[in-house]
């Protein structure tokens, strides 16, 4: 399949995550990813988009942006939010905050697993503060030999 470059913007509401997850899952399947890998990709997207909606959105009207690219046998997805900080308050994403989330992550806690899941299931993972004061999360998934992935 030729290079893909798709840009989406969804309202900052949980309701819109499922259609994005389905769209990216269908795209990954059509690109040749295995069913298991498609499920991994969808779970990562669900976690990243949920974080963007719950932690990185000023309000539903601002939205969450996604950029989906496929080149050189890699599906790369960038999720951008604009931040949820109030005037005079820092962005939720800081090294200290990420360390705290990681330290407090346990099977008995409901939250704090999304970043860990995204890091564990993606081939590449980057998180950084963006110019809007929000967070950019970029994940990449390497497409292996097409014959291995069609199962």
Description:
- Helix content is 38%, strand content 24%.
- It is built from 5 helices and 5 strands.
- It has helices spanning 17-31, 35-55, 95-104, 114-121, 146-149, and strands at residues 4-10, 64-71, 74-80, 124-129, 135-142.
CATH architecture: 2-Layer Sandwich
Helix/strand order, N-terminal first: EHHEEHHEEH
Report the biggest beta sheet as strand number plus sense, adding barrel if it closes. Answer: 5 strands, antiparallel
Oligomer state equals single chain
Q: Between the first and last Cα atoms, what is the distance in angstroms?
A: 18 Å
Helix content percent band? 25-40%
The radius of gyration computed from the alpha-carbon positions, rounded to a whole number of angstroms, is 16 Å
Kindly report the CATH topology: Heat Shock Protein 90
| Sheet/helix structural class | alpha+beta
User: How many DSSP H or I helices?
Assistant: 5
- The outline comes out as globular
Chain-averaged pLDDT:
82
CATH class: Alpha Beta
Overview features:
Heat Shock Protein 90; disordered C terminus
SSE map:
Elements: E1 4-10, H1 17-31, H2 35-55, E2 64-71, E3 74-80, H3 95-104, H4 114-121, E4 124-129, E5 135-142, H5 146-149
Antiparallel strand pairs: 1-2, 2-3, 3-5, 4-5
